[in-house]
Amino acid sequence: MHATTTARAVIDLDVPGDVISRHLYGHFAEHLGRCIYGGFWVGEDSPIPNVRGIRSDVVEALRALGIPNLRWPGGCFADDYHWRDGIGPRESRPTMVNTHWGDVVENNHFGTHEFMDLCELLGADAYVNGNVGSGTVREMSEWVEYLTRDGDSPMARLRRENGRDEPWKVPFWGIGNEAWGCGGNMTAQQYALEARRYGTYCRNHGGNELYRIAAGASDDDIAWTRALMESLGCLTCGSNPTPVFQGVSFHYYSHAGGGINTESATSFTEDEFYGTMRKALDVERVIRRHEAVMDSYDPDRKVGLILDEWGTWWNVEPGTNPGFLFQQNTVRDALVASVHFDAFHRHAGRLKMANIAQTLNVLQAMILTDDSGAMVLTPTYHVFEMNRGHHDAAALAAHVLSAPVVGGDVPGLSVSASTRDDGALVSLSNLSVDAPLEVQVDLRGRAASVRRARVLTGEDAAAHNTPETPDAVAPVALETSLEAGVLSVALPPHSFATVELDLA
């Protein structure tokens, strides 16, 4: 371990900014590997405790995060999914082949009713991703009607025949996914026209108002965002109707420098650790680029920016199906999450939703499960839990005045903060792989006292949890001092901490 270094930051407690939507802490569940089957869905006959086939301990763990929304059924799978195959008696549902993920047979036992049941158990809003790539406008329009229309209509009658009388609330609707790739290999201009057409027929029924999300760019492809914004016309003209879609998405994955799906989740060098931090921190530049394009067309921010896939993408664990994308989750992954959230908080005025990929057993998962009934909370899960106080709180300006540079060009400290009612939450990340960090934070504008402080780290940056050692990486109490408005915190190497404050 290297000698302790120092850093200084300042937070203005009396100048609240944009509200950090709880939906920035959203999740993603695709029909991929063991995310749905063997993850959320074990079936009603399973010896693993469940409610109507949905695994009970998983629901309880996610409810502890205050999970705000869940995106389903994909991902690439969404543009091969035909919703009518997933309704009615399970034994009568047709099968399909999931060619995107493992070339396995999908039995459609987990469909629309099961997903909406899951959302109700979680207390989460539904984000349904419709099929543009291989579907039709009518198919998507009828799915919206099936889910959300009350009274007498063909789809409402069909829903009742399948056992659900009342319509569901579905706040978020995705108009396809990755239309530049697995969702149809379209050009930006071609997809923009399709988004307008599909969005028109995704109607608001009764009191259900859809927030329609156009499938956006990969990384910093601002040309794609520009084409979508251009297609909306004049958003500042007084006579202009509500935009046909209300959100524009993009996807961003982190890796150590070699590209997605090329590197180990648990065996990495110091250079690869810092390469990962560098890539994760770069999400802020990407957000800024999309914001700049959107601001030029939409200065009043009527349209939201949505990062509905993000996280790390490593090689699968040895011996597992390469199409199932099962990877271990380490302290390094937790820090990728923490610096993403710091960026999200700073851009909460435009960034309205984000969905980590994915919730269970796939990529940067919250939870790992197995068929024996074991369940492991990952280091990333703990970052979500520790940051829960930021949900729907007002962002505070947090400035790093001085901090060491690590790994050549990586800032050693990442900070964000928010306030709600008479409290505040400060999040701090030490991005040094081997040096402790003494942090002093000037808390200005209001008197404060420390309510609770916790830290998350491990023996090394590759530390992770297993069924045998489920708490190898878990939050523990952190000592702090607060004198004359200066908060002092000693952060171990490769660590994430939160400090909860009471404000006078």
How does this structure look, described?
The chain is an alpha/beta fold. It contains 10 helices and 26 strands. It starts with a strand and ends with a strand. The relative contact order is 0.16.
Secondary-structure-derived class: alpha/beta
The multimeric state of the shown protein is single chain
Please give the order of strands in the largest beta sheet: 23-22-26-20-19-16-1-21-25-24
Mean pLDDT: 96
From the alpha-carbon coordinates, what is the Rg to the nearest angstrom? 23 Å
Strand content: 25-35%
Shape: globular
| N-C termini distance | 39 Å
Question: Which runs of at least 5 residues are low in confidence (pLDDT < 50)?
Answer: none
Share of helix among residues? 10-25%
Number of strands: 26
Count helical runs. 10
